[in-house]
Amino acid sequence: MKHVSILVPVGEAVLSSIVGSYKIFRKVNEFLIRTGRQKDDYFHIDLVGLQQETSLYNGAFHVHPTKTIHQIEKTDLIIVTSITGDLKKEIKNNYDFVPWIKEQRIRNNAEVASLCTGAFLLAETGLLNGKSCATHWVAADAFKMMYPQINLLGEKVISEDNGIYSSGGAFSFLNLLLHLVEKYCGRETAIWCSKMFEIDFDRNDQSQFVIFKGQKEHTDEPVKNAQLFIENNFGEKISVEDLANMAAISRRNFVRRFKKATANTPLEYIQRVKIEAAKKNLESSTNNISEVMYKVGYNDTKAFRNIFRKHSGLSPIEYRNKYNREMAKA
């Protein structure tokens, strides 16, 4: 039997990550008993909180944890569910989970899986230092700035590193749960579970869902002006030297400040702005790939295709066919 602790954060927790985790592990228990593989539940599931009741979404929902952290002496798997809103505030509200997670990992060798932005709470334990993890693409820049000692795999749906797991954004946590089911109960059980919940199996990339808006929550005005220039002139050829000259800063100092403020190098930022513009064009127009390429300032088809795939996980043609309704009808 595996003891599973599904955390119930206080404040701005994401209810779907709590309920989704609970339902999947319960359904696996039912399947294993029904097929004769287990006589009793394989997963013993507790909703673990800091208090006896948690109110979510301005009181619309109430969750009653089955145990508090003080009542769980040993667990095998901790599911660190998603938090939202002001992440620094929510980390502070839920910080009492941090030493408990760390103790369970170090003393009892518990495995730990963070779902979506639950990665921020897991990062606070220090267990991810020097390791890799995933989180929601919306929070990727904030994560990089807060935890530079962690290798963020921004495109990944699932990250695994020696018993510590994390998932990409939103409902991609379901793919991580399937991964855990497969690890503990075998692929046949995981496939059955994927069919019951209609979850795409073996999805490992969230790049196609990313909407790049740029990190502007900083106070470096020359960098912010450079960002705006890039976004307003993405169809032109833009060099890092030109941006540094406009800011009246040396190239080296400009690159350092730009990356510190945005979590991207200037070249990465230029590429991401251009590709985001190309994606929008492919979604909404009937322009061919070459026309889109020229509109966003590329004239090398191979380079455009490679950079597009790097940032979206799909080729330009695949992306257009998937997201352009008119092209899909053709």
Strand order of the largest sheet: 5-2-1-6-7-11-10
- Distance, first to last CA: 53 Å
Arithmetic mean pLDDT: 93
Mind telling me the CATH superfamily name of the largest domain? Answer: Class I glutamine amidotransferase (GATase) domain
Count of individual helical segments: 15
- Which runs of at least 5 residues are low in confidence (pLDDT < 50)? none
Supply the CATH class of the largest domain: Alpha Beta
CATH architecture of the largest domain: 3-Layer(aba) Sandwich
Shape: globular
| Secondary-structure element series | EHEEEEEHHEHEHEEEHHHHHHHHHH
SS-derived structural category: alpha/beta
- In total, how many domains does the architecture comprise? 2
Short description:
By secondary structure, this protein is an alpha/beta fold. The chain has helices at 15-34, 87-93, 97-108, 118-123, 140-146, 173-185, 187-197, 221-232, 240-247, 251-262, 266-284, 289-295, 301-312, 316-323, 325-329; strands at residues 2-8, 43-49, 54-56, 61-63, 67-68, 77-80, 111-114, 132-133, 151-152, 158-161, 164-167. The protein has 15 helices and eleven strands.
